[in-house]
Every structure is written in C-alpha cells, then in structure tokens.
From TrEMBL:
Gene Ontology molecular function: ATP binding; ATP-dependent peptidase activity; serine-type endopeptidase activity
GO biological process annotation, one example: proteolysis
Domain Lon proteolytic: 154-248
Protein name per its UniProtKB record: Lon proteolytic domain-containing protein
Length: 263
C-alpha cells in the first residue's frame, strides 16, 4: 500500500539528495593547493645564525643594503583542500589557488617531494655560483662558494644567490654596492650561462617582499603581467632576462645613468 505525497512534501524530499551532494562537494578534498606570501631572506646576511653566502679563495667586501630572496608558502601535498578553502582563497589577494600538480610532482610521496626540492635547490646553487664566477671572470680561479639557506627548496632563489655572490666579491664594479644601499628583492631561476627563467607565484612574492621592506623587485620578464596584477604600493618592478640585465639595471638605478627597464 502506498500513500501519495503532497507537492511540498515531494519537493522537500527531492531536495535532500541535492543538499547532501552540495555538502559533500563543499567538504570533499580537491586536487588544489592554497598558497600565500612566504618568508624572505637576505642572501647578503645570515639565516638562522649562519651566513647564507660564504666565500673563500678571494677577498670579499662589506656590503650595505639587502638582497632578499622570496618564497611562497603552500599547503602540503597531503593536506586536504575543500571547495570551501578554494572559494575562500579565490577572493583574497594574499592567497592563490593552484593545481596541486603545478606545485608538487604528481604521485610522489612527501619525502620524495622534499628530496626533489632539495635537489633543485642544490642545482640552483651550483648554477648561481658558476654564473657569478663566469660574470666576474673568476671561473678559472680557486674560488669556493658555499650557499646555505635552511628549510627552503626549489630553484627560484638562483638569481638572488648570483647577485649576492657578485656583490660580496665586486659590488657594482666601481667600489659601490650593487644594491645602492636599498632593500632589493626578487625571484628567478638562473643557469650557468646567466639566463634568468620564470618561477611562478610572483604576485604573492611581491607582497612578501614589500612586507619585509623591499622597494625594488627583480622579476623574470615573462612574469611581468603576473607581478603587476597585485603589486603593492611602493614596490618598483624591474624585469630581467639575463644576469647582465639585472646587474646593469641595478647599477643604473644606483648611479642614475643608463636605462632602468620597467614592466
């Protein structure tokens, strides 16, 4: 025996599965990572009590100003990100919602990812040292460079490492500081030939840079549009494609001569 439901009752009952599905969608884990501005570190100074750059085999100089490498902080690969998290992050300028596979290699364990990031950092440091010594024509000299930055992985500090080595060894080439005494921040990969590459997360890194006192930000030229999207007030963008570009721009900014490129 069956009884007939009134229309309001039928509508109410049919809505229950929809509500259940929506609730499931809101709280179900999604393949995304939520990122925010991370720490910055002055490569000309110390990090956690240890010098970031240590050089032997050549005289070094005292430096003024800062060269701050920048990072983003992202939810770990084993963190569940829900639709609610995605929506919340989507409408905040200090958050970015990124496909998890674009931040972490797909299918790797947390330990494998950490090893991968550590290896990328090591390769970046080697390339930065080679690029700096080649730029200074010290590649055939017995100059040893040690780079140490705790709890940071990936290749995006390459450009700043290279500039830090150059500033400690040669400054601007005329007795002054490459920074001109400013707090300069930036990001970008580098290879041994001095080519600068894009890294991602630039809009968040500019926020971290300004938060920590930077007034100038070196950005890979290919990422100018991303850097301008949420650019904090008081931060000047300088696009670069090579190490020579970066050094020339900083020297021109310091002495007021020559072209300082802009996005």
């Amino acid at each position: 025996m069956f009884s007939r439901l009134s229309r309001p009752q039928a509508v109410a009952l049919s809505a229950l599965p929809v509500v259940a599905l929506l609730a499931t969608a809101v709280f179900a884990p999604l393949p995304f990572t939520v990122a925010q501005p991370g720490m910055t570190a002055n490569v000309l100074g110390a990090n956690r009590g240890a010098p970031v750059i240590t050089i032997s085999g050549a005289p070094t100089r005292s430096t003024a100003g800062q060269l701050r490498m920048t990072t983003i902080e992202a939810t770990s690969p084993d963190t569940d990100v829900s639709l609610a998290d995605v929506i919340h992050g989507w409408f905040r300028t200090d958050r970015a919602v990124l496909p998890r596979d674009s931040v972490y290699p797909s299918g790797n364990s947390l330990k494998e990812i950490e090893r991968h990031n550590s290896e990328q950092m090591r390769q970046s440091q080697d390339a930065a040292t080679q690029a700096a010594l080649k730029y200074l024509r010290l590649g055939d000299k017995k100059v040893t460079v040690s780079l140490k930055l705790a709890d940071v992985g990936g290749p995006s500090a390459g450009l700043l490492f290279t500039l830090g080595i150059i500033d400690k060894l040669d400054g601007d080439g005329s007795g002054g500081d490459l920074t001109g005494g400013r707090t300069v921040a930036g990001t970008g990969t580098i290879d041994a030939a001095g080519k600068v590459g894009p890294v991602g997360g630039v809009a968040l890194k500019t926020q971290a840079a300004r938060r920590d006192g930077a007034t100038v930000f070196l950005v890979p030229r290919a990422e100018c549009a991303d850097a301008k999207a949420e650019l904090p007030k008081g931060l000047r963008l300088i696009p670069v494609t090579t190490l020579n570009n970066a050094v020339d721009a900083l020297v021109a900014l310091e002495n007021g001569k020559g072209l300082v490129p802009s996005c």
